[in-house]
Design a protein that fits this description.
This protein folds into 3 domains: about 5-45, no CATH class; about 55-145, Immunoglobulins (Immunoglobulin-like, Sandwich), CATH 2.60.40.10; about 150-215, no CATH class. It is rod-shaped. It has no helices and 19 strands. The strands form 7 sheets. The protein has a 4-stranded mixed beta sheet, with no helix packed on it. The chain has a 4-stranded antiparallel beta sheet with strand order 14-15-16-19, with no helix packed on it. With about 220 residues, the protein is mainly beta. A hairpin with a 7-residue loop joins strand 15 and strand 16 (about 170-180). InterPro entries: Cadherin-like_sf, Ig-like_fold. It holds the Pfam family He_PIG. It comes from Spirosoma telluris. This is Dystroglycan-type cadherin-like domain-containing protein. One of its GO terms (molecular function) is calcium ion binding.
Length: about 220
């Protein structure tokens, strides 16, 4: 018997307020005073009341997805719509708490995507709103790792070695470590950016660090 319904054993009347939707096969037994039994049955479909707008449901026990990881400078995306369901199957729109720099939320699909620019650990809350204006919330944790250091190309025939100590993006300053080519003039230049920056220096020890802005 569907939850919320019950049978009156004296009258055979089934009544109540169904609590779950679904398709049910129900068998009824009639017993006379001699103990003889006969069986009959019917099928019952319990549907949602189309006149009522039921609120969305947050799924997965309050976690949209398992804890996520991303890397600075590497494209990342996650589908947050999997953390919600609308009982009537109607479309929902999505909102979120402030996202890590470089990531954005598509309000129509619930997808969070982009290229993160700052490392850190973040708790992200997403809200799903149905066409009746009711919003429910769900969330997940995201850890953004710093990218691996970049190694500059060696100059042929020299011991020069350049390492970018981080994974910088536009507008970020990082240290650049230079090794080798002692007492030789060196020019560092950022490439592949909107603006090019150059630094001239001379190594006066075996290793030296110099800040460089990536435009």
């Amino acid at each position: 018997m569907p939850a919320g319904l019950s049978l009156d054993p004296n009258t055979g009347v089934i009544s109540g307020n169904p609590g779950t939707t679904g398709f049910y096969g129900i068998t009824i037994v009639a017993v006379d005073d001699a103990g003889s039994k006969v069986y009959s049955g019917f099928f019952l479909t319990v549907s949602l009341d189309p006149s009522i707008n039921y609120p969305p449901i947050a799924l997965n026990g309050g976690a949209i997805v398992p804890p996520q990881t991303a890397t600075v400078g590497v494209a990342y995306s996650v589908e947050t719509s999997v953390g919600f369901s609308d009982p009537e199957g109607r479309p929902m729109t999505y909102i979120s708490s402030p996202l890590p720099a470089g990531l954005t939320l598509n309000p129509a699909t619930g997808q969070i995507s982009g290229i993160p620019t700052q490392p850190g650990q973040f708790g992200i809350t997403v809200g799903a709103t149905d066409d009746g204006g009711t919003t429910v919330y769900n969330g997940f944790f995201l850890t953004i790792n710093a990218g691996s250091p970049r190694i500059g190309a060696k100059e042929i025939g020299s011991g020069l070695n350049v390492s970018v100590l981080g994974n910088p993006v536009a507008g970020e300053t990082v240290n650049v470590e230079i090794r080798g080519a002692l007492n030789q003039p060196i020019t560092l230049k950022t490439l592949g950016s909107a603006a090019t920056q150059s630094i001239q220096l001379r190594l006066n020890r075996l290793a030296k660090q110099k800040p460089l802005l990536f435009a």
